[in-house]
Amino acid sequence: MDRRELAAFLRSRRERITPADVGLPAGPRRRTPGLRREEVAQLAYISTEYYTRLEQARAPRPSREVLAGLARALRLPDAERDHLHHLAGAPPLPPAGPSREVRQSILDLLHRLPQAAATVMSATLEVLAWNDLAAALMEDFSALPRRDRNLVRRVFLGPHSHGQRLYGVSDGDAFARNATRRLRAAAARYPDDPEVAELVGDLLAGSEEFTRLWESREVTPWSTLCKTFQHRLVGPVTVNCDVLDVTDRDQQVVIYTATPGSPSAEALQLLSVIGTQRMDVIG
After folding, report:
1. What's the confidence (pLDDT) of residue 181?
2. Which residue of 13, 158, 196, 237 is most buried, as measured by CB atoms within 10 A?
3. 270 within some domain
């Protein structure tokens, strides 16, 4: 525990927050910049005396519960929260399970790509967010229960239409192998997460193909640069695939684009107009 650095860090974070930031009145006689010590203590649910001793580098090592309260009270982003833990001699614990929280900036990015179909996937290939064109190209994820938004579950246990799996993609078998590899790696990163364990158990019980791939113990994924979707309304749509890693959340942004001027680009343009409506009932 680095008491001096911890004390200095707490003071610097306290002084940058205004009372208005945390819903407190400023008052007419406020002399200190930022929050008062007693205000931080109140927000962190600890005693003012103990917090004062922390800022004076005289306190014993704070517990993880106290550190969590301080991080919340001081509005620390992820990097600063981790730094606080390291200064206190209590390195942050790894997350119990894959993050399902998508940053607002990533959500905004999806909707700034009107000519691309884009999704955000978790470490276990659950579709966490999508834009309108992705819903039109694949399916309306908002109409599915969360359980059915997992693409590993869909590819092995989902419905197959006319022998086609997972939206009729041209690389369906390769995707199944790749998805199994990614899930095995994720299961090792989150060994205590019950949802990951349940997903793997369901797949082992319900799919001989998954069981065979799982038992190969391969964990190295590969990238797919191009694939073709067989869409029931506009026919084949060939797209380029680009994947952006969101490393701090263990997530991926998957972006599908068509070559400009190609028939697939025209098909995506039509889908952007159609959306998820059922054209088969028209006329």
Report:
1. 95
2. 237
3. yes
